[in-house]
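Hi R.,

Here's the chain you asked about this morning:
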Amino acid sequence: MHQQAERALAAIDTIILGKAEQTRLAFCCLLAGGHLLIEDLPGVGKTTLALAMSHLLGLEYRRVQFTSDLLPADILGVSIFDSTSGAFRFEAGPIFTEILLADEINRASPKTQSALLEAMAERQVTVEGATRTLPDPFFVIATQNPRDQLGTYPLPESQLDRFLMRLSLGYPPAEAEQRLLLDPDHRDLLGTQEAVLDRDSIRAMQRNARAVHVAPAAADYILALVQHTREAPGLRHGLSPRAGLAVRRAAQAWALLDRRDGVLPEDIQRVFAAVAGHRLHARAESEAPAPTPADILAAVAVP
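And the predicted structure, written out as tokens:
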């Protein structure tokens, strides 16, 4: 199974050039059972990453373009009266899939954002009194435009916290961008590649990630990082217990991909910025600068 995971990552890296760290973190996010937020400019490969992961991991994929007039029913589904049977029939929305790309999530209204994020948290949706379970695995990749762009509704802190990780792909290195210009369209390459994993393999890897051992010393390190954020004068508030659990889950997934059955401090350090960055908010009235995840890692000693 480890060999399959490495083959899948290698295959994704042939599509998303020069972003091996980000694709590995995205895969860790899936194995940790979380959801991924990608905040970046248009055109840097966010949609291609979602397509590559769904195709090469053998998962069902659907995409929703978020706009200001998008309604919750457009995502969750709606009951329609069938005149033939004389009863209502539920038409499932695009959320009933294994990988959902919520493209430009911050262009939709807060009401529509909330409908999606409730489903992410509960792994089920309730429409007109009936509760329906979502597929397993269920992985949301949401993209967000920079907050200074027009026509955006920033996600509240409570909703940002529903995402296990936030990543930024950024511009590719010059060598990788040259290959993009010279090679055929890399999305077309997906049609020539077969899936390396399937949903049963992903479920098994998620179970294995949860079973990766976290020693007391590793837990103490996570706790020390969390406590440091709560004492930093430049932050409005520190990381919550749920954020600490998110760091642990992500570190377990990273260790699994490294073929280890226990979490090391290096695993925690590799995932910390992606897990903690969007949960840290500067205190407006503070004269002290808000520490970055890198500052926090540098300030806290490894047990």
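The chain has 13 helices and nine strands.

Let me know if you need anything else.
M.
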